[in-house]
């Protein structure tokens, strides 16, 4: 990123911080406050508009512009790149005015705020791969758009919300595949297989289904579960014959079985990784991981010895020299 972009970001941040403390004239009446707020919105002076809309609501809570000010405050926060404030204001409006004729707009803005939460100012200048980011905001946005389309199917905002839901669903599926490949690389094959299966079962119609089948095939092969691997591979061949993992119909694993960590990772005992760790910090992802762990516990008894043998066979045989040097000279 160029230095001028960094300077621009710093200037904008300082400007926003300084202008957020604007004092609104106490002598302004209700109509004047509302008109000035509208003028600020029209000129894209969102920080100033926020100050006036908040003053309007606090000074005239039962005035004729109070509800409209609450609604437009959501929009001002959203355009001012304050997603948390926008979502909080939207939730408040929905709670206070559930029967308002424009409450669907509050649902829509709430979904937009979550949708753009990971696409702030930095995202305009950095080549970010959204499939590798924490999917918490994407899940929230999908659920909020789903509320809008289910409660107000005829809303003018429903078509755009549905289009964004398709994109978000594809994004969430791709994120699961990214985490599955991380587990494959770390030889956590049960977790990888469960991630792939989760995509196949819950994200039908997305481009990531083929990747999910490929992950399942590779993980089951590593675990020695030949029947499951063959079934996944046959499904992949029949439905996605052009997938990158297939060469003339033969499956090519993506990850090798040896330790694929970088020398830096080995030297620092894994404290510094070359790869981005899986984004499992969100509550939604932790719930999914718990589901996978439960699925592993529920494996049929006849498969447990096979799984144990596979894990034992894959355990690295380390010499005393390897242990003494922490694996630096394996």
UniProtKB/TrEMBL annotation:
<dbReference type="GO" id="GO:0043165">
    <property type="term" value="P:Gram-negative-bacterium-type cell outer membrane assembly"/>
</dbReference>
<keyword id="KW-0449">Lipoprotein</keyword>
<dbReference type="GO" id="GO:0051205">
    <property type="term" value="P:protein insertion into membrane"/>
</dbReference>
<dbReference type="InterPro" id="IPR017689">
    <property type="entry name" value="BamD"/>
</dbReference>
<comment type="function">
    <text>Part of the outer membrane protein assembly complex, which is involved in assembly and insertion of beta-barrel proteins into the outer membrane.</text>
</comment>
<dbReference type="Pfam" id="PF13525">
    <property type="entry name" value="YfiO"/>
</dbReference>
<keyword id="KW-0564">Palmitate</keyword>
<keyword id="KW-0732">Signal</keyword>
<feature type="signal peptide">
    <location>
        <begin position="1"/>
        <end position="19"/>
    </location>
</feature>
<dbReference type="GO" id="GO:1990063">
    <property type="term" value="C:Bam protein complex"/>
</dbReference>
<keyword id="KW-0472">Membrane</keyword>
<protein>
    <recommendedName>
        <fullName>Outer membrane protein assembly factor BamD</fullName>
    </recommendedName>
</protein>
<keyword id="KW-0998">Cell outer membrane</keyword>
<feature type="domain" description="Outer membrane lipoprotein BamD-like">
    <location>
        <begin position="31"/>
        <end position="231"/>
    </location>
</feature>
<dbReference type="InterPro" id="IPR011990">
    <property type="entry name" value="TPR-like_helical_dom_sf"/>
</dbReference>
<comment type="similarity">
    <text>Belongs to the BamD family.</text>
</comment>
<comment type="subunit">
    <text>Part of the Bam complex.</text>
</comment>
<dbReference type="InterPro" id="IPR039565">
    <property type="entry name" value="BamD-like"/>
</dbReference>
């Amino acid at each position: 990123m160029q230095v001028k972009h960094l300077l621009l970001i710093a200037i904008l941040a300082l400007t926003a911080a300084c202008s957020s403390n604007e004092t609104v004239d106490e002598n302004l009446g209700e109509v004047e406050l509302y008109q000035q707020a509208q003028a600020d919105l029209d000129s894209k002076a969102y920080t100033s508009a926020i100050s006036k809309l908040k003053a309007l609501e606090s000074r005239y809570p039962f005035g004729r512009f109070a509800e409209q000010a609450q609604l437009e405050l959501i929009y001002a926060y959203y355009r001012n790149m304050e997603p948390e404030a926008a979502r909080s204001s939207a939730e408040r409006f929905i709670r206070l005015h559930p029967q308002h004729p424009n409450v669907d707009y509050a649902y829509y803005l709430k979904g937009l705020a979550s949708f753009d939460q990971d696409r702030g100012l930095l995202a305009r200048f950095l080549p970010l791969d959204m499939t590798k980011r924490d999917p918490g905001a994407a899940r929230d946005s999908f659920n909020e758009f789903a509320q809008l389309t289910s409660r107000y199917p005829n809303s003018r905002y429903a078509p755009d919300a549905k289009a964004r839901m398709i994109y978000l669903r594809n994004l969430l599926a791709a994120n699961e595949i990214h985490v599955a490949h991380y587990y494959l690389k770390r030889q956590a094959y049960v977790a990888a297989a469960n991630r792939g299966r989760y995509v196949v079962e819950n994200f039908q119609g997305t481009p990531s289904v083929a990747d999910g089948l490929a992950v399942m095939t590779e993980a089951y092969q590593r675990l020695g579960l030949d029947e499951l691997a063959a079934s996944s591979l046959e499904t992949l061949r029949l439905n996605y014959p052009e997938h990158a993992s297939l060469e003339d119909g033969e499956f090519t694993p993506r990850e090798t079985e040896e330790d694929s960590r970088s020398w830096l990772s080995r030297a620092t005992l894994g404290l510094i990784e070359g790869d981005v760790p899986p984004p499992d910090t969100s509550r939604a992802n932790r719930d999914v991981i718990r589901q996978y762990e439960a699925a592993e516990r529920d494996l049929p008894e006849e498969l447990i010895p096979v799984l144990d043998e596979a894990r034992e066979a894959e355990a690295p045989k380390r010499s005393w020299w390897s242990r003494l040097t922490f694996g630096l000279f394996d």
